[in-house]
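Go through this:
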Amino acid sequence: MSAGLPLENETELLAWALLRAANRTQARDTTIRLVVPRAPEVAYDLGIEQIAQERIVEAEEWLEEQGYLAPANIGLTWGTFTITPAGLEWLRGGMPRLVEAPQKATEPTSGSLSASGGVDARVTSEPVSWWRRLFGGTE
Protein backbone atom coordinates (compact mmCIF):
# COMPACT_ATOMS: atom_id res chain seq x y z
CA MET A 1 0.00 0.00 0.00
CA SER A 2 1.03 3.55 -0.53
CA ALA A 3 1.23 6.14 2.20
CA GLY A 4 -1.01 9.09 1.52
CA LEU A 5 -3.77 7.26 -0.35
CA PRO A 6 -6.79 5.79 1.37
CA LEU A 7 -6.98 2.02 0.84
CA GLU A 8 -10.43 2.33 -0.74
CA ASN A 9 -9.16 4.73 -3.41
CA GLU A 10 -6.07 2.61 -4.03
CA THR A 11 -8.28 -0.42 -4.66
CA GLU A 12 -10.52 1.61 -6.97
CA LEU A 13 -7.54 2.83 -9.01
CA LEU A 14 -6.08 -0.68 -9.28
CA ALA A 15 -9.52 -2.02 -10.22
CA TRP A 16 -9.91 0.56 -12.98
CA ALA A 17 -6.46 -0.18 -14.39
CA LEU A 18 -7.11 -3.93 -14.16
CA LEU A 19 -10.49 -3.64 -15.90
CA ARG A 20 -9.00 -1.45 -18.61
CA ALA A 21 -6.18 -3.95 -19.24
CA ALA A 22 -8.59 -6.92 -19.25
CA ASN A 23 -10.81 -5.06 -21.69
CA ARG A 24 -7.89 -4.25 -23.99
CA THR A 25 -6.28 -7.68 -23.93
CA GLN A 26 -9.32 -9.93 -23.67
CA ALA A 27 -12.78 -8.33 -24.03
CA ARG A 28 -12.10 -5.72 -26.70
CA ASP A 29 -15.02 -3.43 -25.72
CA THR A 30 -17.68 -6.13 -25.63
CA THR A 31 -19.76 -7.72 -22.87
CA ILE A 32 -19.72 -11.07 -24.69
CA ARG A 33 -16.07 -12.11 -24.37
CA LEU A 34 -14.76 -13.72 -21.21
CA VAL A 35 -12.09 -11.99 -19.13
CA VAL A 36 -9.75 -13.37 -16.49
CA PRO A 37 -8.28 -10.32 -14.72
CA ARG A 38 -5.61 -12.50 -13.04
CA ALA A 39 -4.32 -13.78 -16.37
CA PRO A 40 -0.63 -13.15 -17.08
CA GLU A 41 -1.37 -11.09 -20.20
CA VAL A 42 -3.41 -8.62 -18.13
CA ALA A 43 -0.61 -8.16 -15.60
CA TYR A 44 1.86 -7.84 -18.46
CA ASP A 45 -0.31 -5.19 -20.14
CA LEU A 46 -0.35 -3.24 -16.88
CA GLY A 47 3.34 -3.77 -16.26
CA ILE A 48 2.61 -4.92 -12.72
CA GLU A 49 3.77 -8.50 -12.55
CA GLN A 50 5.06 -7.76 -9.05
CA ILE A 51 1.62 -6.88 -7.57
CA ALA A 52 0.53 -9.43 -4.99
CA GLN A 53 -2.19 -11.84 -6.09
CA GLU A 54 -4.27 -10.78 -3.06
CA ARG A 55 -4.42 -7.20 -4.40
CA ILE A 56 -5.66 -8.46 -7.78
CA VAL A 57 -8.33 -10.55 -6.03
CA GLU A 58 -9.37 -7.49 -3.96
CA ALA A 59 -9.68 -5.46 -7.15
CA GLU A 60 -11.74 -8.23 -8.81
CA GLU A 61 -14.06 -8.37 -5.80
CA TRP A 62 -14.42 -4.59 -5.81
CA LEU A 63 -15.31 -4.63 -9.53
CA GLU A 64 -17.88 -7.35 -8.93
CA GLU A 65 -19.41 -5.50 -5.95
CA GLN A 66 -19.73 -2.34 -8.07
CA GLY A 67 -21.42 -4.30 -10.86
CA TYR A 68 -18.59 -3.75 -13.36
CA LEU A 69 -17.78 -7.47 -13.66
CA ALA A 70 -20.23 -10.37 -13.70
CA PRO A 71 -19.09 -13.93 -12.92
CA ALA A 72 -19.19 -16.30 -15.86
CA ASN A 73 -19.53 -19.61 -14.05
CA ILE A 74 -19.13 -21.82 -17.08
CA GLY A 75 -16.83 -24.42 -15.60
CA LEU A 76 -13.60 -22.88 -16.84
CA THR A 77 -11.04 -21.06 -14.73
CA TRP A 78 -12.02 -19.68 -11.34
CA GLY A 79 -12.18 -15.90 -11.68
CA THR A 80 -13.71 -15.86 -15.16
CA PHE A 81 -15.97 -12.87 -15.75
CA THR A 82 -17.66 -10.77 -18.38
CA ILE A 83 -17.46 -6.99 -18.32
CA THR A 84 -20.91 -5.53 -17.78
CA PRO A 85 -22.29 -2.54 -19.71
CA ALA A 86 -21.79 -0.52 -16.51
CA GLY A 87 -18.13 -1.58 -16.46
CA LEU A 88 -17.59 -0.46 -20.06
CA GLU A 89 -19.28 2.85 -19.26
CA TRP A 90 -17.08 3.30 -16.18
CA LEU A 91 -13.99 2.79 -18.33
CA ARG A 92 -15.20 5.37 -20.85
CA GLY A 93 -15.47 7.90 -18.02
CA GLY A 94 -11.71 7.83 -17.52
CA MET A 95 -9.48 6.95 -14.62
CA PRO A 96 -10.85 7.83 -11.16
CA ARG A 97 -9.24 10.78 -9.46
CA LEU A 98 -6.55 10.23 -6.88
CA VAL A 99 -7.81 11.02 -3.41
CA GLU A 100 -4.92 12.08 -1.24
CA ALA A 101 -5.16 11.55 2.49
CA PRO A 102 -4.92 14.80 4.43
CA GLN A 103 -1.35 15.63 5.36
CA LYS A 104 -0.40 16.09 8.96
CA ALA A 105 0.92 19.52 9.90
CA THR A 106 4.27 17.95 10.84
CA GLU A 107 4.89 16.51 7.37
CA PRO A 108 7.16 18.54 5.08
CA THR A 109 5.60 20.06 1.97
CA SER A 110 6.95 19.47 -1.52
CA GLY A 111 7.50 23.16 -2.31
CA SER A 112 8.86 26.15 -0.48
CA LEU A 113 6.60 28.29 1.65
CA SER A 114 5.64 31.70 0.33
CA ALA A 115 5.33 34.83 2.43
CA SER A 116 1.64 34.07 2.97
CA GLY A 117 2.53 30.65 4.42
CA GLY A 118 1.30 28.61 1.45
CA VAL A 119 3.32 26.46 -0.91
CA ASP A 120 5.01 28.48 -3.63
CA ALA A 121 3.65 27.22 -6.95
CA ARG A 122 6.86 28.18 -8.76
CA VAL A 123 8.88 25.59 -6.85
CA THR A 124 7.89 22.07 -7.83
CA SER A 125 9.42 18.71 -7.28
CA GLU A 126 10.11 16.25 -10.06
CA PRO A 127 6.79 14.86 -11.35
CA VAL A 128 6.01 11.31 -10.26
CA SER A 129 3.50 9.18 -12.15
CA TRP A 130 0.32 8.10 -10.37
CA TRP A 131 1.32 4.48 -10.78
CA ARG A 132 4.66 5.00 -9.02
CA ARG A 133 3.04 7.06 -6.23
CA LEU A 134 0.39 4.40 -5.75
CA PHE A 135 2.41 1.21 -5.92
CA GLY A 136 6.01 2.41 -5.61
CA GLY A 137 7.25 0.40 -8.60
CA THR A 138 8.39 1.27 -12.06
CA GLU A 139 5.92 1.82 -14.82
Observations:
- Residues 38 and 56 are 7 Å apart (CA to CA).
